[in-house]
Specification:
Layout: H1 6-18, H2 24-42, E1 50-55, H3 59-73, E2 77-82, H4 91-102, E3 107-109, H5 113-124, E4 128-132, H6 144-155, E5 159-163, E6 185-189, H7 194-197, E7 207-211, E8 225-227, H8 230-234, E9 251-255, H9 262-274, E10 279-285, H10 289-295, E11 300-304, H11 317-323, E12 329-332, H12 340-352, E13 357-359, H13 362-367, H14 371-374, E14 381-383, H15 387-394, H16 398-403, H17 405-416, E15 419-422, E16 428-430, E17 436-438, H18 451-464, H19 469-491, H20 498-513, H21 515-518
Parallel strand pairs: 1-2, 1-4, 2-3, 4-5, 5-6, 6-7, 8-17, 9-10, 9-12, 10-11, 12-13, 13-14, 14-15
Antiparallel strand pairs: 15-16, 16-17
Helix pairs in contact: 2-3, 3-4, 9-18, 9-20, 18-19, 18-20, 19-20
Length: 541
């Protein structure tokens, strides 16, 4: 599913009207009808409720007027609070305002703080608020009496549905720019907007419903940002051949670990096996070898020379390169430290390796020294930074990164011809060809040590099974988040640890892929139940 900016949505609307002949008044009518449908589905007792619709003077307000008309037609007690004088309303919204007036629908004009004070008691009589005040396109804080009204509505404690986007939120970024509606449900039209999905703003969207209002889907073909959906991931997987063996599912070399950070190496290796890799060899400092052999017998080991600090030494280069013969993917970084000789080893390996590479954790911190080298490397490469690591790569603050995380991630991917998964709430995947993907799965319980190591192992495990880098990365990020969601359902967020995510990988795979490929059955249906982020997720934010 495409994810659009306000400007992209305006262009799509324009082409819908001009190129396809769907009049703007028809789009407005369809939008209002869809919102009423959602309200009726959500509130079975809506005939017993009083509805307050808060409408601005623009098209978002026009949607609100359509909503008021259809609710009144169904016999539902509805009041339209128009946050402007009637004469200030124009275009299609004015057409609908005239219909509302002709129908005798109760309309109260609020054009000042004095008007607002006069109608406060009437507002509080309502059981449900419909926010149709501002819509998309806002890029500065709400001011004046709008700000006071939005604050009042939030503090009233009523169920609130926002039309298109909660008024006051930016549709293009997840940053909070001022006072805004805190919605229980947001109904948006055609495509989700970036501001619906990016945090911290996304937590004020509530449950997101994306509805069809007759906008042709092909008009979004040039949009580069996508939301990963369950059916996208399901289509990537295929049944295993009955006559197959472990060699058919790849062999991974994991270069990881240092004294005190052996857990990172173990988590990455185990998650690679759990997602289906045939073989995993873990190359690690020689003093740690026995403990790993005893602790995770499914993983083969390669003991390496180490520094006096217990990290992998530069002298391990030839041994690693020899071991890479016949391997399908190299995963490097979890727990390796930033010891100078280990970092130099990283650079030497990047110059020599000829299989796909996944770089994570300390590997990302170390690769900052070799960024220019990446331009000359033809080996397919994935990096999985968290915001702190990404900010260090770019020599900016985490705050600056959050403000433009999509653009900055994409710029880095294109500049160095690499795939990047920027981890966090709504992880961002950027591909060197220009496409960006937002991941809807995951929860705050996954903010725990080792969760990133698990992700890197899943990515490497899928690449080893001959998934393309794009398919492996999108599938891994989605399944990793889903496994975290499943673990959280069983254990709660506070008690969730990285090992719980690994334990939940099989259930995540069964849920997405189904019984045909992996045995078992799917617990829930596809994302088309909600169209946008899974219903399960809403309890987390």
């Amino acid at each position: 599913m495409k994810v659009v900016t306000a400007e992209e949505m305006q262009e799509i609307d324009r082409k819908t009207i001009e190129d396809y002949g769907v009049q703007g008044i028809v789009l407005m009518e369809n939008a209002g009808i869809q919102v009423v449908r959602v309200l009726l589905e959500r509130h079975k007792d809506i005939s017993e409720k009083r509805i307050g619709i808060f409408a601005g003077k623009g098209n978002n307000g026009g949607d609100g007027m359509v909503i008021a008309r259809h609710l009144v037609t169904k016999g539902i007690d509805t009041t339209l609070f128009l946050l402007a004088r009637k004469e200030a309303v124009s275009g299609d919204a004015n057409t609908n305002l005239k219909i509302v007036t002709e129908m005798g629908i109760r309309t109260l004009e609020i054009d000042s703080l004095e008007d607002f004070e006069l109608h406060k008691k009437e507002i509080l009589r309502c059981d449900i608020f419909v926010d149709a005040i501002l819509g998309t396109g806002l890029n500065s804080p709400v001011r004046g009496y709008y700000k006071d009204i939005i604050s009042f509505l939030n503090n009233a404690g009523k169920f609130t549905l926002s039309v298109d986007i909660p008024s006051g939120l930016s549709s293009d970024a997840g940053e909070i720019i001022g006072e805004h509606i805190k919605a229980d449900i947001t109904v948006t039209f055609g495509f989700p907007k970036r501001g619906h999905l990016l945090y911290p703003g996304a937590k004020y969207v509530g449950r997101l419903e994306v509805v069809d209002i007759s906008i042709p889907g092909r008009l979004s073909n040039k949009v580069k940002v996508n939301l990963i959906e369950e059916e996208d991931i399901r289509a990537i997987f295929h049944p295993r051949d009955t006559d197959s063996h472990k060699g058919n599912y790849g062999h991974i070399l994991v270069v990881a670990g240092s004294i005190g950070k052996g857990g990172a190496a173990a988590l990455a290796s185990m998650s690679a096996l759990k997602i289906g890799a045939g073989l995993v060899t873990l190359a690690l400092p020689e003093s740690m070898n026995l403990a790993v052999e005893m602790g995770i017998p499914e993983v083969m080991t390669l003991p390496l020379p180490q520094t006096n600090k217990g990290t992998i030494d530069l002298s391990a280069k030839d041994k690693i390169l020899d071991s890479l013969e016949g391997k399908d993917v190299l995963l490097i970084g979890p727990g390796i430290s930033t010891h100078p000789r280990t970092v130099k080893l990283l650079g030497e390996l990047l110059r020599a390796v000829n299989c796909p590479v996944v770089i994570d954790a300390d590997g990302i911190n170390g690769v900052k020294t070799y960024l220019d080298l990446l331009k000359d490397i033809s080996t397919p490469m994935i990096m999985t930074p968290h915001p702190g690591e990404m900010a260090r790569l770019l020599d900016i603050t985490v705050k600056d990164l959050r403000a433009k995380r999509l653009e900055l991630t994409q710029n880095l991917a294109e500049k160095y011809n690499i795939y990047i998964a920027l981890k966090g709430a709504r992880s961002v995947i950027a591909e060197p060809g220009g496409e960006i993907y937002l991941n809807p799965t995951g929860n705050p319980g996954m903010a725990t040590a080792g969760a990133g190591d698990v992700l890197s192992g899943i990515i490497a495990g899928l690449i080893s099974q001959r998934f393309s880098l794009s398919n492996a990365l999108r599938s891994a990020v989605y399944l990793h988040g889903l496994a975290g969601d499943i673990a959280s359902e069983h254990l709660g967020q506070m008690s969730l640890i990285a090992g719980d995510i690994i334990d939940s990988i099989p259930e995540a795979v069964r849920e997405v892929v189904g019984s045909r490929q992996y045995g078992g059955g799917s617990r829930v249906g596809g994302m088309d139940k909600l169209v946008c982020p899974c219903e399960r997720m809403q309890e987390y934010f």
